[in-house]
């Protein structure tokens, strides 16, 4: 049966202010460029630019920032019909520094933010059953009512035969306790078909032991989560997903399947300008391939290409690659 949408994503959205002073310490930044951000929002834009039919389920405040987001999404062709306005709440914001090659500090402004106010009624108003894929991010699980709405949406997707993808998306400063992130994520995983995350995010999803948390030495650095990555990968898969896609940055990605198959998929070497948003670009390319019925290797290769393109650019959603552009990038570098 054909469905109206290829992908519906759910979760946070924001205005992202990226430092124009690349290389400058955060305290010396003089100006910022305004873009659109938030993992599910980035993925919605990324998959739309690749040619998929996409809708976004987030929420905005009754404010100019919300108008800024909605205009950009409308211009991109992302269906914003199901994005409610939450009066009394603010569209969220993120401020990001760029200090290549390995320092990219960011600060979230999510107090009283609109997208965490998504409700079960908002989910019922969205056509999740009319999508081939439903994607949700871990930050949407951090507080109520968004947490219950996200679980309900995953239930609705499973009942309709819609595949469920989880971007693990661990943001420590959005949780009162990192162990709570693990508890909630593990509860959702039985409804997930494909999970995507970094090694640290996988450790966070399986976190039970507080001794594995290393407290950060600065206010803008997240605590580090340690653990036995291979054991945690197997523990995560045992909870239900058919596959876990581990993002490895410049090294590409590794796909672990529930049948025991492990597949390394090489990345594309590029000069790194800004890594922020690269994971969302990867997810966009990977979900594009998954929805099209490509094999795991080819889908992840597409994801790697999308990520490689974005790390050479200033922002994320505003700089996602288009289908022809990404396919040409891959072809020029030896193909899939």
Summarize it:
This protein has 336 residues and is α/β, with parallel strands linked by helices. The protein contains 10 helices and 14 strands.
Description:
The protein is α/β, with parallel strands linked by helices. The chain has a single domain (5-332), classed as Ribokinase (UDP-N-acetylmuramoyl-L-alanine:D-glutamate ligase, 3-Layer(aba) Sandwich), CATH 3.40.1190.20. Helices cover 33% and strands 19% of the residues. It is built from 10 helices and 14 strands. The protein has helices at residues 39-49, 64-76, 120-124, 146-160, 178-188, 199-205, 229-237, 278-291, 296-310, 323-332, and strands spanning 5-10, 14-19, 32-37, 54-57, 92-96, 106-109, 131-137, 163-167, 194-197, 213-214, 224-225, 243-247, 253-257, 262-265. It has an 8-stranded mixed beta sheet with strand order 4-1-7-8-9-12-13-14, sandwiched between helices. α1 crosses α8 and α8 (278-291) packs antiparallel against α9 (296-310). The longest helix is centred in the middle third of the chain and has 15 residues, at 146-160. The radius of gyration is 18 Å and the shape is globular.
Order of helices and strands: EEEHEHEEHEHEHEHEEHEEEHHH
Largest sheet: 8 strands, mixed
Helix tally equals 10
How does CATH name the architecture?
3-Layer(aba) Sandwich
Q: Strands of the largest sheet, in order across it?
A: 4-1-7-8-9-12-13-14
Question: What are the defining features of this structure?
Answer:
alpha/beta, 4-stranded mixed sheet, 10 helices
């Amino acid at each position: 049966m054909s469905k109206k949408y290829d992908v519906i994503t759910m979760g946070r959205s924001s205005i992202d202010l990226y430092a124009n002073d690349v290389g400058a310490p955060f305290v010396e930044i003089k100006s910022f460029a305004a873009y659109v951000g938030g993992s599910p929002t980035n993925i919605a834009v990324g998959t739309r630019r690749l040619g998929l039919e996409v809708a976004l389920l987030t929420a905005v405040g009754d404010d100019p920032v919300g108008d800024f987001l909605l205009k950009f999404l409308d211009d991109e062709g992302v269906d914003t019909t199901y994005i409610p306005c939450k009066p009394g709440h603010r569209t969220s914001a993120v401020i990001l520094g760029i200090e290549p090659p390995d320092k990219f500090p960011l600060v979230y402004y999510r107090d009283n933010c609109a997208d965490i106010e998504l409700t079960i009624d908002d989910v019922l108003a969205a056509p999740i059953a009319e999508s081939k894929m439903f994607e949700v991010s871990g930050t949407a699980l951090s507080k109520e009512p968004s947490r219950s709405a996200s679980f309900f949406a995953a239930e609705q997707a499973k009942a309709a035969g819609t595949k469920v993808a989880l971007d693990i998306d661990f943001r420590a400063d959005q949780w009162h306790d990192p162990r709570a992130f693990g508890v909630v994520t593990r509860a959702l995983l039985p409804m997930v078909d494909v999970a995507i995350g970094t090694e640290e995010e996988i450790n966070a999803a399986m976190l039970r032991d507080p001794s594995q948390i290393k407290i950060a030495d600065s206010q803008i650095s997240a605590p580090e989560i340690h653990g036995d990555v291979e054991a945690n990968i197997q523990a995560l898969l045992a909870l239900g997903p058919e596959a876990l896609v581990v993002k490895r940055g410049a090294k590409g990605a590794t796909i672990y399947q529930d049948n025991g198959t492990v597949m390394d998929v090489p990345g594309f070497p590029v000069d790194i300008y800004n890594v922020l948003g690269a994971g969302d670009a990867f997810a966009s390319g990977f979900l594009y391939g998954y929805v099209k019925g490509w094999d795991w290797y080819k889908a992840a290769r597409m994801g790697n290409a999308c990520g490689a393109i974005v790390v050479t650019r200033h922002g994320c959603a505003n700089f996602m690659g288009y289908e022809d552009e990404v396919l040409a990038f891959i072809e020029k570098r030896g193909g899939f």
